[in-house]
Amino acid sequence: MRLVSFIQVLLLLAILAYLSLFTLENPVPARLPLPFGRGELSLSVGMTVALFALIGAAYAALLLLPPVWRGRLSLRRERRERRAVEERLTATLQARLGAIPTAVPAVSLLPGPDLPTPGEEPSA
User: pTM higher than 0.90 for the full model?
Assistant: First the structure.
């Protein structure tokens, strides 16, 4: 799909280049026929080139608008989904942490000053 848009933009640039050459070679007014055979519009060639350049720019903007719009919508959807997953994970973690019994004081199994080392007899 991007290839088609790229080719269309190149085509519009080629038309603009052709109209620029036409402007340079023909300084006379250009007569553009109006739709439905209702006469013609007489403009200078420079105005005609500017008009077609604006039409081409609007067309190129319309070609670029749908991919940008889809990208923004998908980014917004991904953010919403990520936020929902984070909330579920937070709720699950809080539930699991709440289910853990209170910590029992740890008993040291290492010999210390009060405990005899293995193989020794306790001193009374």
Answer: no
**Residues sharing a CB contact under 8 Å with residue 40, sequence separation 6 or more, in sequence order:** 31, 32, 33, 34
Higher pLDDT, 85 or 30: 85
Residue type, 13: L
Domain range annotation of the chain: 2-67
How far the first Cα of the chain sits from its last, in Å, is 89
Residues in the chain: 124
Amino acid at residue number 15: I
Give yes or no for a contact between 45 and 28, defined as CB atoms under 8 angstroms apart. yes
Please give the average per-residue pLDDT across 117-121, as a whole number. 63
Q: What is the mean pLDDT of the chain?
A: 79
Other Cβ atoms less than 10 A from the Cβ of 39: the count is: 9
